[in-house]
Amino acid sequence: AGEALLAANNPDGIYQGAGIYISLFLVLLAGLIISVVMWRSSVFGKAAAITGLLANGIGMCYFVTLALLPSIYWLPHPISAPFRVIWYFLIALRLFKLGRKKGNP
Hints:
Layout: H1 2-8, H2 19-40, H3 46-68, H4 76-101
Helix pairs in contact: 2-3, 3-4
């Protein structure tokens, strides 16, 4: 009964398995790759690329803090969140502009 209670309420374990860490790492890595491609391209502009690099780069710091400073593992996400929102907004704005150039309603 005690093991079941610890499994349900594990204060030291943030997540139950490694899947969430792998998926978060892959999403952030994909964001970094997309930002580098934006940097080299003239379609989205340098502001979107820099914002994406900041958002995903700061997000990657989560894994460093989780390994080296677990008491502040929560810090990279709220720091990267404003950059991520601005990045999504800049991407959406550019996609809307590209859609209007093609004559789509």
